[in-house]
Design goal:
The protein is of the alpha+beta class. It contains five helices and twelve strands.
């Protein structure tokens, strides 16, 4: 009986030690969860000069939403492709956008082709307004990119592709769109995949370093892919540890030994 009791105690202690070791090994250090940290003690800078926002220019196969606003509603409606759907809710602007052809032109009603390649949105507004000047006066032009997105994959709470409506979005805004990072997201080794002149390039970003705010990657570009790898702790995390099975097996074993001990 004494041997059985000792064996039971040994099993309980062993299981407890395993669970404690697993729990501690799965803990993520606090400093790995904090964004924009002061990495060096002598770093006392409190104000950062941000990199200028990248100027996104119009390129072939971009989609543009263009709206003409004028005191003469009848005339402006001639140029607005969504005018016939003005009473329809939740208009799909991808369906009424203008696609830039491979030569950098859009085909605009009554005007013909307008070259917009390599222009910023503001420059495109001026170019379209100039082309329309002989048809309509006192007009206001709205031009926006349609269908521009960033892709967020890996240790996000809601990974996926997210449409961005601003010309630029900073990396923190993009992450918040995906519900933030999980506790197991490696904030020190984030990869940004960015296309440049037909080639894909990889860049490493440390989001725990506050110098990120003055880097070239504080602002994302349309079509960027942000990849967040898991920390090593996730590989043997407590969440994936089969503690329920082990505890059930131990309980069954103890009950069996207790039962045997009664004879």
């Amino acid at each position: 009986m004494k041997n059985i009791s000792g064996l039971i105690n040994y099993i309980l202690v062993f299981v407890l030690v395993i669970i404690i070791i697993t729990a501690f090994s799965s803990c993520v250090p606090h400093e790995k969860l904090i964004y924009v940290q002061q990495k060096q003690k002598n770093d006392t800078i409190q104000t950062f000069v941000l990199k200028s926002r990248p100027k996104n220019t119009i390129q072939p196969f971009d989609n543009l939403y263009i709206k003409i606003i004028s005191p003469d509603a009848a005339t402006s409606n001639m140029f607005n492709s969504e005018s016939q759907n003005s009473q329809v809710q939740n208009v799909n602007y991808n369906m009424i956008s203008y696609t830039v052809n491979d030569s950098g032109f859009i085909s605009f009603p009554y005007v013909g082709e307008i070259k917009l390649k390599d222009l910023t949105i503001l420059q495109a507004k001026d170019t379209i307004q100039s082309a329309l000047s002989k048809y309509i006066s006192n007009s206001t032009i709205i031009v926006k990119f349609v269908g521009k997105s960033v892709t967020l994959v890996g240790e996000f709470n809601r990974q996926g592709e997210y449409v961005i409506y601003d010309d630029n979005v900073n990396i923190f805004t993009a992450i918040s769109m995906a519900g933030g990072l999980t506790d197991f997201g490696d904030r020190e080794n984030i990869t940004i995949v960015r296309e440049n002149s037909g080639t894909a390039q990889y860049y490493k970003v440390d989001m725990t370093d506050r110098n990120l705010l003055k880097s070239n990657f504080y602002y994302l570009k349309p079509e960027d892919i942000v990849i967040v790898p898991p920390l090593k702790q996730k590989s043997f995390g407590f969440a994936s540890f089969p503690y329920a099975i082990i505890l059930t097996s131990v309980t069954t074993l103890i009950a069996l030994l207790t039962f045997i001990n009664t004879f």
